[in-house]
Protein: Glucose-6-phosphate isomerase
Amino acid sequence: MLRLDTRFLPGFSEELKAHAPLLLEAREALLAKRGQKGAMLGWMDLPEDTETLREIRRFREQNPWVEDFVLLGIGGSALGPKALEAAFADSGVRFHYVDHVEPEPIRKLLQSLNPHKTLVNAVSKSGATAETLAGLLLFLDWLKAHLGEAWRRHLVVTTDPKGGALRALAGREGLRAFAIPEEVGGRFSVLSPVGLLPLAFAGADLDALLMGARKANEQALAPLEESLPLKTALLHHLHRHLPIAVFMVYSERLRYLPAWFVQLHDESLGKRDQEGRRVGTTALPALGPQDQHAQVQLFREGPLDKLLTLVIPESPVEDLPLPPVGELPEAGYLFGKTLFRLLKAEAEATYQALAEAGQRVYALYLSEVSPYTIGWLLQHLMWQTAFLGELWGVNAFDQPGVELGKRLTRAFLEGEG
Amino acid sequence: MLRLDTRFLPGFSEELKAHAPLLLEAREALLAKRGQKGAMLGWMDLPEDTETLREIRRFREQNPWVEDFVLLGIGGSALGPKALEAAFADSGVRFHYVDHVEPEPIRKLLQSLNPHKTLVNAVSKSGATAETLAGLLLFLDWLKAHLGEAWRRHLVVTTDPKGGALRALAGREGLRAFAIPEEVGGRFSVLSPVGLLPLAFAGADLDALLMGARKANEQALAPLEESLPLKTALLHHLHRHLPIAVFMVYSERLRYLPAWFVQLHDESLGKRDQEGRRVGTTALPALGPQDQHAQVQLFREGPLDKLLTLVIPESPVEDLPLPPVGELPEAGYLFGKTLFRLLKAEAEATYQALAEAGQRVYALYLSEVSPYTIGWLLQHLMWQTAFLGELWGVNAFDQPGVELGKRLTRAFLEGEG
Structure:
């Protein structure tokens, strides 16, 4: 269950009524592009794709020997799987993310792994990502050196259905390859094989994850009053003059979720609009309670330049009572309370304290942290982002601003020797 | 070696001359408080404290049995040790940070640890941090249940020299206790036992760390032209109208450094000034190259509302050449290059692309990522922050804005049943 709370934004229901035509028009404009080639709306259909899920499950069952899973991928190819694996891993398989190009940690990783028990998953939609290809050269070389011809069983690629270097490699060498559907971009790909394959090895409940995502789809298309993503999109639209959108999550298991949201929000919406104006707000990742001891001082007394989203679980999966320990009477006020109750009290206290400080803040309550609620939340946030693209007049599905960096990298790489 | 580069901010040397009186006055005002009770400037002296370092080393040598190190602490008690341990751990001791209060991960951790091989370090300046006390109840109970009277050897506290619950516990039970000097606050405590104790168990080179920090002290007090912290403080001062201060680090080993900086900057400077005005800029954590695929689109095409600091290493400690792998001719442009060269090319390309987009950006170059350069960088950033406190008219060493949250937490905790 995902629930929006706007108790500290009292005029919101009037705003919702006033903006109904705008919101419904934005939704209509978005849905009108569904199925159009190049519209990149394939993420809407991923929660229904049970055939891919079956294939992935079969592959996981065929490879029970895997003890270490190395994901070579960066940005949208790593942030989603990492967030979900950290939350729901249950199989004992160890995960390693090579989403960087620093030599020392990669050297250390290669020394620590047993190649016979390692599965390498190279993930890139285009197949041309420099960081991923660099990592792949190192791991391919390492697998071949240790396993000879058997290396092919230890490398699986997730990439475009037809084009690019990874697809070509898989074709030439007979590697297992999973497809990222043509109409699904990197930051919208967590429910494609990009996320599902690692999560199958992590032992996460993928049926529940997709079921939750289907719930978000339902709500996205529902009448305005029940359409959560239209409502949260409006919240961001009404506060677009505030430069910073804080995304603060009260769950240690979800510690990598803010980074996934940052990419989704920033790379989708930080754009020139049709008139060439610079639009977008800057997502700021935050965790509760850690950031009560880091960022909340600024949120309370610093500039009122933020819209804050608090993601708060309403109940634990399994709680821990705090034992009365005679040696520590100073902590007596905690005896007999539970850990989750402390967590919840801190979240509610922060929510209220931020509102009292004059910041704009709302909450998304999760009934609990589970694959079902997080599947729902992820797909919800994708809809929110897509709606905001319509409202702000930008294409939420491209990233023209990163091209210059790629060209310059190549130039620096060639030029320096 | 730490080096400031302002090539894309051409007017900076004139600005430095024009602001010389202001900067020198700020430094004088800060240094005039040195030694005053309650000024909280003890962090300036930590790099010279070799006696504490000796004690910590002795303690580490007396406890060679430790295989798992559990740090109970949050905010300034965890962010610094975590950043440095992730960068420089070399001993094989496994580190676990209980800097949260979510029941499920703590339950899992307790089940996975061998109490006979585990050292628990409870860290809180005040000794009153609710999250840390909650964790301590659980771990104390667990140690006693498994070890009986021997539990006392497995718990060490780092806290105020005299007051608070942790100091009292240590006194009553005869536990080993390390002192956070009275004049050192949490977010300035990384070079006190807060950081040094875990890092001794991690096997990091603490002499080099403190030597680097002494270099920053030297520069802080040097004539303006050589005073790196005064210069970077001025950069932030000149851009204080921009709401966002991006701190982007091109090093996977330093992946937790941005979170440490966020606390230092936000909690020190996000304040009401003497006239009651809300001041402070919001630090935004970023990593290279990961965020080229996440935030750089927004940095390039979104609003020009940021000052960006790029932290870039100039050479690797140990590089990795990219092997020419016949199976992957599409990556031919990388054959024979090294991984670090790719990293450096990406950093330089991003630096230039951000400047060309019209963002305000400067670089801090590290000769390499080592305890020496990072000790230097950390202490440099503490000086920068302290100088900014003077320039912005706020007390960089208190955190009044978090008190309401603490009171409300207690109320919610008591009230709900």
Notes: Chain B touches chain A through 121 residues (CB under 8 Å). The longest strand of chain B covers residues 306-313.
